[in-house]
Amino acid sequence: MPNDALPSVSFCDVIALSSLLIRSAVLLCNIRNVLATSGSDAGSPSQGGARFRRGGECKVELTVREAANTVPPMSRSASIASDTLTRPKPAAVLELLKPITWFAPMWAFGCGVVSSGVPISERWLVMVAGIVLAGPMVTATSQAANDWYDRHVDAINEPNRPIPSGRIPGRWGLYIALIWTALSLALAAFLGIWVFWAAVVGLILAWAYSAPPFRLKKNGWWGNSAVAACYEGLPWFTGAAVMVGGLPDWRIITLAALYSLGAHGIMTLNDFKAVEGDLKMGIRSLPAQLGVARAARFACFVMAFPQAIVIALLFSWGKPIYAAAVCVSLLVQFVLMARLLREPKEQAAWYNATGTTLYVLGMLISAFALRTIGA
């Protein structure tokens, strides 16, 4: 099969599947509303208060007042909003998809585009489609899935989020995540076989991160690895694959993997702000497992070591100027890391604004180095 061939499922078939999912979601939501309206009069088992007797006869055992008292810990305002809303408003959907989280994978995708060495003017349309895939599609899918499976915890800790507040009513949070998954696969299939399979891997990790039985987010080793791959390595690979129309050069894949490994440390820094809560909830983040001080040292090592390898590789590939630029960036990061290690919890956010910025600039420098050697 040529590199740019589509998978056996045609693009039209995938679009048809996406349309079917959307229609099904609307139909399910309408059925739910009908049952909710008629259930109070007919004693429908959908109210959750029916018990089946031996002979199959159904009798409602709970009164309306008792049923109201058994509502799960979603806020009362969410219940009221869910009764009055049948479909979420676009603003609530956008908030659920969290546009602020799209930047990191879009940046990594851009690094992949640069590293390919292909002029943007030759494939600008597929490049734009790839940017949409990396940020507003795959990353947004992961955010919707995460909020859906965290909705009960968010009802307690962050009740104003779209799902617990009722602005995303019923099961629409799940429907949106499923619809975005289908649309992501449709767009990825249009962009080529390697892009399609990269999207498949990214979406599997996105769902496994949040959904039971895997819930990778409950363990810092697995969860941070999944996020790092989805935010750095896979988008970089995808950006290059979109531009070359096939499998990227091995040097591109190598640097994408190294920077993805380093991003594991960045994800660890993000866990410092919730150590106490993680311990109470049984979430085994690295700060919760190793302690704050050890986790900070580990994060610094994981961020620095891959960059050192990148520097050595750039020197070996005959790009000493680019290697020196990444080296300077790493040396400045060492200075910033010293401050981070003195007060990890207090300085983690500061380091993310300074040291992490240098890290991603090093990614772009490395991408330009690959571009100049025709990788």
TrEMBL record:
Keywords: Cell membrane, Chlorophyll biosynthesis, Membrane, Transmembrane, Transmembrane helix. Its main location: membrane. Gene3D superfamilies: UbiA prenyltransferase. One of its GO terms (biological process) is chlorophyll biosynthetic process. The chain crosses the membrane at residues 176-209, 221-244, 250-270, 291-315, 321-341, 348-370. The keyword Disulfide bond does not apply. It is a multi-pass membrane protein. GO terms for cellular component: membrane. The keyword Membrane applies. It holds the Pfam family UbiA. This is Chlorophyll synthase. It comes from Afifella marina DSM 2698.
